[in-house]
Amino acid sequence: MKPAHRKIEAPRVTVDIVIFTIEEAKLKTLLIKRKFDPFKNIWALPGGFVRSKEDIYAAALRELSEESGISGVYLEQLYTFGSPKRDPRGRVITIAYFALASRQKLRIRSASDAKDAGLFSVDDLPRLAFDHKEILEKALERLGNKIQYTNVLWSLLPEYFTLGDIQRVYEIIWGKKADKRNFRKKLLSLGLLKPIGKLRKGLRRRPARLYQFKTKKYVELKRFF
Amino acid sequence: MKPAHRKIEAPRVTVDIVIFTIEEAKLKTLLIKRKFDPFKNIWALPGGFVRSKEDIYAAALRELSEESGISGVYLEQLYTFGSPKRDPRGRVITIAYFALASRQKLRIRSASDAKDAGLFSVDDLPRLAFDHKEILEKALERLGNKIQYTNVLWSLLPEYFTLGDIQRVYEIIWGKKADKRNFRKKLLSLGLLKPIGKLRKGLRRRPARLYQFKTKKYVELKRFF
């Protein structure tokens, strides 16, 4: 680091949060409609400035709670975006996070700086403010990867689910169908799930075993080697 | 984001870079000895403030070049560290990067803010300034993972190498021996390498095929599914 007396125009620092949920068989994200310029009336990711004495992860948790009423969900630092032109007001560097929340947990409300808030399918987004489209694309890529070798989906699914349920979630996130036999074999071989010893019975379908994640503590599996 | 007129004490933003190389069969990282307070005379990761109109990736490239004379190597954003207490001077958020460089490419020199610079084995580090130990640990973890499903090792190895050479690099990074047969089978199955059709002959060893990475463009392999 250069000596502190060297004059540097300090940038401002924000956190922005991509909150993923599943609703009506679609992967959706929470957006807020901006009440103020720049990008007044344009949809944006929820977020805000990091406070002077606040840890950045704490800032992300605070924004998550303020904007969607949720806590206790999976929240991960995604990437920091720092192009000098990304905010017309001046230099703003943003630390992006992503969160996974079941639809039941999300309470959608407009914070004081928002005109409106809503869930949007990631396949059918409105125009987004700033570089938020780029942030969302990065989050989608990370999510698509992470569900292959971690247990983060516990945060998107209800407590108990069938293998059919979880396969649909994978298919929705990846945007493509998976072969049932292969998928189940691979998924169970990861060792992240356990059967709870109960069946879900439906009128028009065969009873299906219910599963849950063995733990909600973060698990990252070894890969090729 | 909150309206711009809300008063926020702006943090300062730095980039810090973990530069990995291999020397004498050890994974090493470049450290600089700080010339100024805080942490005067303590070793630290190379880095510095992001300039007002500079992209953060450009800042990392600039620091990399200033501190080690290298360019054209693999450089990736690692993680952003933003504990409010990490710098005794006040609020400084740092965006950490990591780079991989073959020893031949590295020119070690002291920048104007450093008293000294040198390579240190990651297994035998001096006391580090700030939270740089934590940053280094995160970088080590990322590196250990990334070499399992990407081609980033092109940047740490010479242009041509034997499977024995690259196995040693994996073993050095992971800090453990690998079974030769299994390792080779798995490594070649990734499809990242190609034989160049030449052998390396040695006086005291059997001739060994030389390989190179198929591309230096970033490749990330699919994982379990």
From TrEMBL, chains A, B:
It comes from the Bacteria. One of its GO terms (molecular function) is hydrolase activity. Pfam families: NUDIX, WHD_NrtR. Residues 10-142 form the Nudix hydrolase domain. The keyword Hydrolase applies. Transmembrane segments: none annotated. Keywords: Hydrolase. PANTHER family: ADP-RIBOSE PYROPHOSPHATASE, SLR1690 PROTEIN. This is Nudix hydrolase domain-containing protein. It comes from Candidatus Sungbacteria bacterium RIFCSPLOWO2_01_FULL_47_10.
